[in-house]
Amino acid sequence: MNTTEARPDKAFDLVVVGELNADLILHGEVIPEFGQVEKLLDDATLTLGSSSAIFACGAARLGLRVAFIGKTGDDEFGKFVRRELETRGVDTRGIVVDPEIKTGLSVILSQGSDRAILTYLGSIAALRYAEIDQQLLRQARHLHLGSYFLLDALRPDIPSLFEVAHSLGLTISLDTNYDPSEKWEGGLAETLRQTDLFLPNETELQAIARAAGVVDASLALDFIATRVPLVAVKLGSRGAVARRGEEVIHVESFPVTVVDTTGAGDTFDTGFIYGYLSGWELARTLRLACVCGSLSTQGVGGTAAQPTFSEALNALSQL
Questions:
Q1: Global pTM?
Q2: What homologous superfamily is domain 50-97+124-316 in, according to CATH?
C-alpha cells in the first residue's frame, strides 16, 4: 500500500458500518409529473449506491484495507451490491444476507450539480447491533459509520458500538448524512460524544446544531467543535473547512468539469480519513479530501471516477 502507517497486527485499516443499496441514476433536465405524463431522459445507470458503500470503495481505491458490515436481502440487488464491493477490493464477510427482506434502492434524478432522491429503505434500516461482527472490529484500526439517520434498528445501540470500538483501540469517524425526518436528533448527542472525527456537510452541520438550540448558523461549527475533537465540513463548490480545537483550516475546491455529484461527499471522507490515519497535518489532509471529492464527480455514479492514491497526489500537487 502507498502508505498509511500499516499495522501488521491488524488485517484492516478500517471497518465500515452502514447502509447498502443500489442506485438507479436518471439523467435529464426534466421534472416528474403525475397524471401518467411520460418524459424522456438522457441516460440511466444502475450502480452501487449508499453513502457507506461508496465511501468503502473510495477508501479501498486509495489503497486502504477495508471491511464492510451491513445488511442486504437475498435478491438481485443484494447480489449486485455485494459483487460490486468485492470487485473493488472491499471485504464483505461482515454483510448479513437476510432472505426475509428486500435490499434497499435509491432512484436519483440528476441534473448537473443537483439531485432529487427517492429511497426505499428495505434492508438499510434493518441491521441490528447483535449482527455486528465484533471480530472484524478487533482486526481494524478505525471504524467509520455512515448514514446514521437511516440505520433505524442499529441507531439506539450506536453509542454502545462506539464504546466497544474505543475499548478495542479503534478511532471513530461519523458521517450522519441527511436526516429524512428532519428532526436531526435521535440520540445523536450521545453518539457525537464518542466520535473522534465528524464529517458533515454544511447543511447537516447547521441542522444538527439548530436542533440542539443553536439558532445562529455561523456558530454551528463552534458548537459542534466543543463536542467532537476534529470536524471537517463539506462546503460544496466552496471547498471545505476543518477545525481541531482552535485550529481552523479552509481549503478551496479542486476545479473539475462536473458530470455527476453522487457520492462526492463520501469520497471527500475517504481522502480525509486517509490523511487522518497517515498522521498528516490538518491542511494537507483537508486538501486531499477536497481533491478526492472533486475528482469523483467526473463520472456517473459514486464510484466510477474515484481516484487512486497516485491520481489524488497528482491533483494535490497542483493546489
A1: 0.92
A2: Ribokinase (3.40.1190.20)
